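Input record (one chain):
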Amino acid sequence: MDMRILVVSDTHRDFFSLRQAILQQPKAEVVLHLGDGEEEIMEMKQQFPERMIVSVRGNCDWGSTLPSTEELCLEGKRIFMTHGHLYQVKMGYYSIYCAARERKADILLFGHTHVPMQDYEDGLYVLNPGSLHGYNASYGIIDITPAGIMTNLLTFR
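The corresponding structure, as predicted from the sequence alone:
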């Protein structure tokens, strides 16, 4: 069974871009939002009730009741997702990689830096989709298949 996951972050009230990214990925039954976009996510949950949409709180989601971290198991793979600011990801990735490993995650997802990156280190897939808002907007895709895990970064147009 194949599963496609759309990974977005830092939409910063850009309802249009988030909606377009979801429409561009009709095969993605799961949408993971990595923070700084709570209002848009609440709107998308109403517009796309058939999708599983999960979000965490970002540093700009003031007054949010969303959790700061989320752990999911999809297709037998453990996913650890967080915005990244609580792990000081703008200073480096060591503490967030450790947090993912402590949770025995297969996939680590974070945002906050607005800089897309993907990595694979010793069994851990890492994806930061960048920011879906503004110039150089981007998002990520994860495909979980019987053959393994594929992460991809896409420029948003």
